[in-house]
Amino acid sequence: MSAAKVAVITGANRGIGRATALRFADADYHVVIGARDAAQAEEVREAIAAKGGSAEAMPLDVTAPASIDAAADALAKAHSSISVLINNAGINVGQEHDIVAASYEDIEASLAINAIGPLRMSRALLPLLEASRDGASIINVSSEAGSIAATLDPENDYASMKAGSYRLSKMALNGVTALLSKALRDTSVTVHAMCPGWTQTDIGGPDAPNTPEDAADLALGIATGGVDAPDGSFRNREGALPW
Ligand code: NDP
């Protein structure tokens, strides 16, 4: 059993997830690097260890119940509680298609990874999150592109964005956030959605104005109370976002 607070991060092998793993390790969390790619997860673990941090690599596909169950079992054996679950893993497929043209293949894959995956992870790790004496948080890495209010606002930049399958899945993730927050209101577990902003990763591309480290800072701020993020809130680095 480790003494440090434990942070579990999905899709932590690259992009925002990798930067978030390094950031939480710097902040003295023991980091669980959830990833489908074992070699990349091990590289992140070594990068953390090289800086004196504490981490473990965990095989994890957020669409595979057996993979999630195995991770939850391994975590329960190794740790008495989890302080933070960051549901970061995500895909952005079929960006060029709006919701009329999006393929059902893309819609179903996006919902499975971006919305149902975080729900599966949250439910599987709930006993360990509830066991955290200082409270625990679930942070869902969403997107303002999944804001229904922004979608219906013709003045908003995101109103003209296509990406029907991605946007639907992030709307569903925001729904998961709100419903989990409500369902867990009498527990010590809080639930948050965050938009990292357009970020330099494989999803965001090289022209994005924000770095993965910016997103990692926001996640850490939400987890530690450094930024204002009440239970059941949706925000970016600037402040609250409309659902
Ligand atoms: P990347 O493409 O760099 O990283 C995506 C990560 O998700 C990878 O680690 C990938 O793993 C993982 N992943 C995908 N599917 C699964 C799965 N089934 N099980 C486990 N892991 C999986 O993108 P970002 O870092 O940009 O994205 C991270 C999050 O940030 C996403 O939820 C995204 O929607 C969100 N976001 C990003 C923005 C941006 O501009 N970059 C803007 C708004 C939100 P693998 O290597 O195995 O594919």
From TrEMBL:
Protein name: Short-chain dehydrogenase
Gene Ontology MF term list: oxidoreductase activity
Gene3D superfamilies found in the cross-reference section: NAD(P)-binding Rossmann-like Domain
UniProt family annotation: Belongs to the short-chain dehydrogenases/reductases (SDR) family.
Domain of life: Bacteria
GO biological process: secondary metabolic process
Organism listed in the record: Litoreibacter roseus
GO CC field: cytoplasm
InterPro entries: Fungal_SecMetab_SDRs, NAD(P)-bd_dom_sf, SDR_fam
Pfam families: adh_short (PF00106)
Entries under PANTHER family matching the protein: CHAIN DEHYDROGENASE, PUTATIVE (AFU_ORTHOLOGUE AFUA_5G01530)-RELATED, SHORT-CHAIN DEHYDROGENASE/REDUCTASE
